[in-house]
From TrEMBL, chain A:
Keyword Membrane set for record: yes
ABC transmembrane type-1 domain residues: 97-313
Family per record: Belongs to the binding-protein-dependent transport system permease family.
Transmembrane segments: 12-30, 101-125, 137-156, 185-204, 247-270, 290-316
InterPro entries per the UniProt record, alphabetical: BPD_transp_1_N, MetI-like, MetI-like_sf
Principal cellular location given in the protein's record: membrane
Membrane topology: Multi-pass membrane protein
Name of the protein: ABC transporter permease
Swiss-Prot/TrEMBL keywords: Cell membrane, Membrane, Transmembrane, Transmembrane helix, Transport
One cellular-component annotation, GO: plasma membrane
From TrEMBL, chain B:
Major localisation: membrane
PROSITE patterns with a match to the protein in the record: ABC_TRANSPORTER_2 (PS50893)
GO cellular component terms, semicolon-separated: plasma membrane
MF terms (GO), sorted A to Z: ATP binding; ATP hydrolysis activity
Database matches in CDD domains: ABC_NikE_OppD_transporters (cd03257)
Record keywords: ATP-binding, Cell membrane, Membrane, Nucleotide-binding, Transport
Intracellular or extracellular location(s): Cell inner membrane
UniProt KW Nucleotide-binding keyword: yes
Domain ABC transporter: 9-259
Example GO BP: transmembrane transport
Pfam families: ABC_tran, oligo_HPY
Higher taxonomy: Bacteria, Pseudomonadati, Pseudomonadota, Alphaproteobacteria, Acetobacterales
Protein name (record): ABC transporter ATP-binding protein
Gene3D superfamilies: P-loop containing nucleotide triphosphate hydrolases (3.40.50.300)
TrEMBL record, chain C:
Pfam families noted in UniProt: ABC_tran, oligo_HPY
Molecular-function GO terms, alphabetical: ATP binding; ATP hydrolysis activity
NCBIfam families: oligo_HPY
Residues making up the signal peptide according to the UniProt record: none
Source species: Gluconacetobacter johannae
Topology of this chain in the membrane: Peripheral membrane protein
Protein name: ABC transporter ATP-binding protein
């Protein structure tokens, strides 16, 4: 077990290294764009340009440039933006990260709970109108574009019915840090959470229902029934527990890509200054250092989430633990 | 004990039909038998004979939508046919337990074997986790599992096939059921392990007083284990009777042909094995008369009508031959 | 004495199973099968009998040792050079359904090898050649000609196995390796297929390696028998000699464990062996059977026995072979 964890950690570091090299090469070693001039800014004096060149090692071979960049990104954390001169990009990312993490974690909690409930209920009542209704609802959730749903939510809660008793509690768009005002944080985020979760509730409940229905035919489910267990116990302890594998691996990927910036549309619609929006702005301005920082940040999340999913596998399935499956 | 006491299980005209492609197809057709206390009854048949379906019906585990089960199955005087699921649940695992063919897939892979046995014990009585585990370990030990406390903490895939099946039997016996249904319990096992498990099943009757319904396709397993034998062919009873009599003097041509087609392990090797031509009919294509007639060497006009199951000596035979005074020859037994 | 048609020399087959562990499926197996013989390979799960069958046909490449088919060393031949030789050796598998593509007609399935391989003169077979051969093959395995236009799912298990046999015979092989070909079939069908195998051998002069766990079936069909345990042959000899008076205690136990369809008057038999087959990842030292052997001595725990002739032409790997009862 300890060996497996260590090996996994090594793999994680290796993957991160690979991604950083790739991103570095794409943005800094592409011919035609002189990074020195960009960092130094418009109308910079030759002295400034020379200083920047030495500081970033742009006069040295690529490996040295890479090491400098990583150093500036992870150790000294003084990489500056091209566009807003003097703005340090690492703190910028660290400012945006809590917004995104808050948004995605809350949504994830909602979509996991809701989809487990819906998927299990639909599987238990397979073939009935409840099953058909829930699955239809899921399909609707998958089909609704998140920005449209967000706009409609805003329309209802921010303008039209804002003053009605129903939505008067909804604050204006924007983020409230948890440390400042936990209740305000919750109020500001609850509608974005639900909006973001809707699509995933649809996907996950359908996936889970399909897996649960498939597992019904397994021998061990028949054994569980032959033992005289209640249908609920058979479904939850024997069916649900063994059908969580697809669910968990999907969750790991979705959660990571959302935290890494994939929640862009939701962030934009609800005026949340998160990582997705930051990345989008950086790409729009071709702000290379900022792009570098956000991409590395999201890569870290994807890779870590994958490692966590693998660990969860170990916990969920003893056969994986023994290296059999 | 009262000799006239009702049998533990009395099945009468059990008929099971499933909807296939829009019409009802009879899988099991008017099967009747009784099982006494401490008795081992073997149900033999090939695939599609309805033997497993019969067992699942007794457990209330047929949940195919539209399935129709008629007839009667009285277990300790209680009617099982039409029993609501809620009532079945209190019987399953406690009064009637079942073990399955493949002990690998029959255990839930993500829990330890001990956890799964504890679960059954606790499902049928107010037992603390600790007491349940004590009983689990004792049961495993009784089933001949070496180091039962350690085995209880293992996951199914970590055990050998033989240990898994022993654990499965321990689980089935955990609530002292009066009836154990074993569906091909040794088919997935190696022959030396099979011998151990069959020995264990025979011992259970002595030590636990359980009756066993042993479902198998293997005539050898039946001969070695069962007091009485019921041969199913194509959803109907071909023959039933005390195992010794059925094997020494099979009354139905199917039983005789089945026994003949098994290559002998001792004595002279036949140049050719006596084989049964053709294959069993699919449930939807069963002939109107005797279902075995199309493959039977003795088939004649009288076989166009389905023969009733009639007593002949200690056996009951669904064939016109005994009534016509043309009994099959006794088998020369070489052992 | 005729030269062997297929020969295995000190075959070893190892699989990595993770965590640096090695599963030794075959541990130095040598045997030879002469033309016209039927060699039965018996043993319990994990003994390596199927692996051996696959190695003989080079469907798996052994880790060490040599496989010689008809005088040619095929152990390391590349697939291109192997292909013409493959016509001479074919395999029949246990699962008659899985080995047939469900979306193709029987005619196409049996004709496939005829289309892929050229005939004896190196020519591509014409449609007429193929049709004639198909008709011949169906007759050979006892299937109606109408079967050609139908699909695998329309047949019963026994008929599907006939189709597989017809396909294996299409190129007139000399050697057929059959891996548990009757064990998935119903008892009443098994006998038909065993008879078919025996008829085909007589008519076509085939040589079989017949892999099976069912001793009675193996006895019926085999001229010689190799008994395997944990990756090695423990006894090898004439079928009648080995199965009537086994010299290895494992062979004896295997025979004693078979439930026979005869009700014995002297009551219940005790199981001949205790415990399960040990894991092939960590086989016991010394004689690999000593953990379950009823007559094991101290020597068996440390000193691995080698195959040797106890004086009646068979080979047995045991320090204390049983006296022949015949």
């Amino acid at each position: 077990m300890a060996m497996a964890v260590l090996r996994r950690l090594g793999q994680t570091l290796f993957v991160l290294f690979g991604i950083s090299v790739l991103v570095f090469l794409v943005f800094f070693a592409t011919p035609g764009a002189d990074p020195t001039a960009r960092i130094a800014g418009r109308n910079a004096s030759p002295q400034t340009i020379a200083r920047v060149r030495v500081e970033y090692g742009f006069d040295r071979p690529l490996p040295v440039q890479y090491v400098r960049m990583m150093e500036k990104l992870f150790v000294t954390r003084d990489l500056t933006s091209y566009v807003n001169r003097g703005e340090l990009v690492v703190p910028e990312v660290f400012q945006a990260a809590p917004v995104t993490v808050s948004l995605v974690t809350g949504a994830a909690l909602i979509w996991v709970l809701a989809s487990v409930a819906m998927g299990t209920l639909a599987a238990a009542l397979r073939g009935t109108w409840v099953d058909r209704g829930l699955m239809m609802l899921g399909l609707v959730g998958i089909s609704i574009p998140v920005f449209w749903l967000g706009q409609v939510a805003n329309l209802l809660t921010q303008s039209r019915y804002h003053d009605s008793w129903l939505f008067s509690w909804v604050p204006g768009l924007g983020y409230v840090p948890f440390t400042q005002d936990p209740l305000g944080w919750f109020r500001a985020l609850v509608i974005p959470w639900v909006t973001l979760a809707v699509l995933f509730v649809g996907i996950y409940s359908r996936v889970l229902r399909a897996d649960l229905v498939a597992v019904r035919g397994e021998d061990f489910m028949r054994t569980a029934r032959a033992k005289g267990l209640s249908p609920a116990r058979v479904l939850l302890f024997h069916g649900l527990r063994t059908s969580m594998m697809t669910f968990v691996s999907l969750f790991g990927l979705d959660f990571a890509q959302l935290v890494g910036g994939g929640a862009l549309l939701t962030e934009v619609v609800f005026g949340l200054q998160g990582v997705g929006r930051l990345t989008y702005q950086a790409l729009g301005n071709l702000d290379l250092p900022l792009i570098m920082a956000t991409v590395m940040y999201s890569a870290v999340f994807v890779v870590i989430a994958n490692a966590v999913v693998d660990m969860l596998y170990l916990l969920l399935d003893p056969r994986v633990r023994d290296g059999r499956a | 004990m009262d000799a006239d006491a009702p049998p533990l299980l009395a099945v009468r005209d059990l008929t099971i039909a499933l909807p296939v492609g829009g019409r009802m197809v009879t899988i099991v057709d008017s099967v009747s038998f009784t099982l006494g206390a401490r008795e081992i009854l073997g149900i033999v048949g090939e695939s599609g004979s309805g033997k497993s379906m019969t067992a699942l019906a007794l457990m209330g585990l047929i949940d195919a939508p539209g399935a129709r089960i008629t007839g009667s199955a009285r277990f300790k005087g209680r009617e099982l046919v039409g029993l609501p699921q809620r009532a079945f649940r209190t019987l399953r695992g406690r009064e009637i337990a079942m073990i399955f063919q493949d002990p690998m897939t029959a255990f839930t892979p993500v829990y330890t074997v001990g956890w799964q046995i504890d679960e059954q014990i606790r499902a049928h009585g107010r037992v603390t986790r600790k007491d349940a585990r004590v009983r689990t370990i004792r049961l495993l030990g009784d089933m001949g599992v070496p180091d039962p406390a350690r085995v209880a903490d293992r996951y199914p895939h970590q055990l050998s096939g033989g240990l898994r099946q022993r654990a499965m039997i321990a689980m089935a016996l955990s609530c002292n059921p009066s009836l154990l249904i074993a569906d091909e319990p040794t088919t997935a096992l190696d022959v030396t392990v099979q011998a151990q498990i069959l020995d264990l099943l025979r011992r259970l009757r002595r030590e636990y007083g359980s009756s066993v319904l042993l479902i198998t396709h293997d005539m050898g397993v039946v001969a070695e284990t069962c007091d009485r034998t019921m041969v199913l062919y194509s959803g109907t009873i071909a023959e039933r009777g005390p195992t010794g009599a059925v094997f020494a003097r099979p009354g139905h041509p199917y039983t005789a042909a089945l026994l003949d087609s098994i290559p002998p392990l001792h004595g002279a090797r036949p140049a050719r094995l006596p084989s049964i031509p053709g294959s069993p009919p699919a449930p939807a294509d069963r002939p109107a008369g005797c279902p075995f007639a199309p493959r039977c060497g003795y088939a004649h006009d009288a076989c166009a009508v389905r023969p009733p199951l009639l007593p002949r000596g200690v056996q009951d035979i669904a064939c016109v031959l005994p009534a016509e005074g043309r009994d099959l020859p006794a088998r020369c037994v070489s052992a | 004495m005729t030269a062997p048609l297929i020969e295995a020399q000190s075959l070893r087959m190892e699989y990595r199973v993770g965590r640096g562990q090695v599963l030794r499926a075959l541990d130095g197996v040598s045997l030879a099968v002469r033309p016209g013989e039927v060699l039965g390979l018996v043993g319990e799960s994990g003994c390596g009998k199927s692996t051996l069958g696959r190695c003989l046909l080079r469907l798996a490449r052994p880790t060490a040792g040599r496989v010689i088919f008809d005088g040619t060393d095929i152990t390391a031949l590349p697939e291109r050079t192997l292909r013409p030789l493959r016509q001479g050796m074919q395999m029949v598998f246990q699962d008659s359904y899985a080995s047939l593509n469900p979306r193709r007609r029987i005619g196409e399935l049996i004709a496939e090898p005829l289309r892929v391989h050229r005939d004896g003169q190196g020519r591509r077979r014409t449609a007429g050649d193929i049709a004639a051969r198909l008709a011949e093959l169906l007759d050979l395995v006892g299937l109606p000609q109408a079967a050609l236009a139908r699909y695998p799912h329309e047949f019963s298990g026994g008929q599907r196995q006939r189709i597989n046999i017809a396909r294996a015979l299409a190129l007139s092989p000399r050697l057929v390796v059959a891996d548990e070909p009757v064990s998935a079939l119903d008892v009443s069908i098994q006998a038909q297929i065993v008879n078919l195998f025996m008829d085909l051998r007589d008519r076509l002069g085939l040589t079989y390696v017949f892999v099976a766990h069912d001793l009675a079936v193996v006895r019926q069909i085999s001229t010689r028998v190799a008994v395997m345990y944990l990756g090695a042959i423990v006894e090898l000899g004439d079928a009648d000699t080995v199965l009537h008076s086994p010299a290895h205690p494992y062979t004896a136990a295997l025979i004693a464990a078979v439930p026979e369809p005869v009700v014995s008057p002297d009551g219940d038999r005790a199981p001949p062996l205790r415990g399960d087959v040990p894991s092939p990842i960590a086989p016991p030292p010394g004689c690999r059977f000593h953990t379950r052997c009823p007559i094991a001595q101290d020597r068996c725990r440390t000193d691995p026995p080698v195959l040797r002739d106890p004086g009646d032409g068979r080979q047995v790997a045991c320090h204390f072979p049983l006296e022949s009862s015949a």
